[in-house]
Specification:
The structure is a single chain. The chain has 367 residues and is of the alpha/beta class. It is built from 13 helices and 10 strands. Strand 2 (39-42), helix 2 and strand 3 (62-66) form a beta-alpha-beta unit. The longest helix has 23 residues, at 190-212. The relative contact order is 0.11.
């Protein structure tokens, strides 16, 4: 007989999703539906051309372009963009790009309540959440506020065709991390479990296909679909050790966001596995059920090993050393991570956590 379903609370989130190839063409109608008249377009320096395309689509509704979004949302950039939005009289922000750009849009909304339209070109998932993060004095602080949740998200897979394969893989595994932690967090629920398993499976089957052909539109669509589901999970349930470590490593040591998530996730899963066996089974089933990883049939593996293989077989870095982390900083990272502990299936034990970081630094495959 099946065990009694646990009690849970489910809270639906407001927001509109426009999904499909060519959906960027609907941007003007979506801005109009918000009642906005002056949209400030946000991007990173590398995506200036995409931002200019967006501004052209908006025509007279484009208030200007800010192209200096950077990862981890430094407070100095936040002050600059908030001042510019006020100066231009912007009544809407359009963020095109990945988590860095969406995060900058959220920083504006946190201050002014300005509505955001997000146009993701990676698989970060930030566009689905009311979670924001701002880095000040070397520490990345995160929080939740419904004002920062984008009002509309336009998922156009055609915009991801030029996303480099290497970043596609790490961005996709970053998305998998959202869903994986959602399966063992303290406030998980059956609705999110379904989305998490489907999101993980979609990314696990699509990333190897993207590596084989970066212009495979069907695989790009599947990956974006998976990222959407994983982002929904991130917003609806709490996170645990993995995200705590990645915020520490990214905010304090300025390591690249998606790549850091990719390296740390297998080791965070291995750490939590003894205390979250059911979640690990679901993660492993979603990953192993995807079939081929990098063209090699792997058979049945643990959740931690399957994530590690997905990264390594598809060309991603699997060690903090490869990302530029200094071994001498591992103790400091451990000290920071031990502070203000997240709720986690396994209590944070200093010796074990330090070993986790060492394993991640060395790039050891979890057994």
């Amino acid at each position: 007989m099946k065990d009694l379903m646990k009690s849970f609370v489910y809270r639906g989130q407001a927001g509109k999703v426009v999904f499909g190839p060519g959906s960027l063409s609907q941007l003007g109608a979506e801005i109009e539906a918000l009642g906005a008249h002056k949209a400030l377009v946000l991007c990173t320096p590398e995506q200036r051309a995409s931002a200019e395309k967006v501004a052209d689509l908006l025509g007279v509704r484009a208030a200007g372009i800010f192209d200096r979004a950077v990862m981890h949302v430094p407070i100095e950039t936040v002050h600059e963009i908030r001042a510019l939005a006020r100066q231009l009289g912007a009544d809407c922000a359009v963020a095109i790009g990945g988590g860095s750009t969406t995060g900058l849009g959220k920083a504006i909304a946190l201050d002014s309540g300005l509505p955001i339209v997000a146009i993701p070109t990676t698989y970060a998932g930030s566009e689905m959440t009311e979670i924001y993060g701002i880095t000040e004095n070397g520490l990345k602080k995160t929080g939740r506020d419904p004002r920062v949740l984008p009002r509309t998200v336009i998922y156009d897979p055609e915009l991801t065709l030029t996303l480099p394969v290497s970043l596609s893989v790490t961005s996709g595994i970053n998305a998998i991390a959202h869903a994986a932690e959602g399966l063992y967090c303290v406030d998980s629920n059956p609705v999110m479990d379904l989305m998490a398993r489907e999101g993980i499976a979609a990314l696990a089957r699509s990333l190897p296909l993207i590596r084989q052909s970066s212009t495979n539109l069907a695989a790009r669509s599947d990956a974006l679909y998976g990222a959407w589901l994983c982002g929904l999970v991130l917003n609806n349930v709490g996170m645990a050790l993995h995200h705590k470590l990645c915020h520490t490593l990214g905010g304090t040591f300025n390591l690249p966001h998606a790549e850091t998530h990719t390296v740390v996730l297998p080791h965070a899963l291995a750490y939590n596995a003894p205390n979250a066996p059911q979640a690990m089974v679901m993660i492993a089933e979603a990953l192993n059920g995807a079939g081929l990883t990098g063209g090699v049939q792997r058979g049945v593996r643990s959740a931690a090993a399957a994530v590690f293989d997905l990264a390594q077989d598809n060309g991603a870095a699997v060690s903090l050393r490869a990302l530029g982390m200094q071994e001498a900083d591992l103790d400091k990272a451990c000290d920071i991570a031990m502070q203000n502990q997240y709720q986690n299936p396994r209590p944070l034990e200093r010796v074990a956590l330090r070993q986790l970081l060492q394993n991640a630094f060395d790039g050891r495959r979890p057994d």
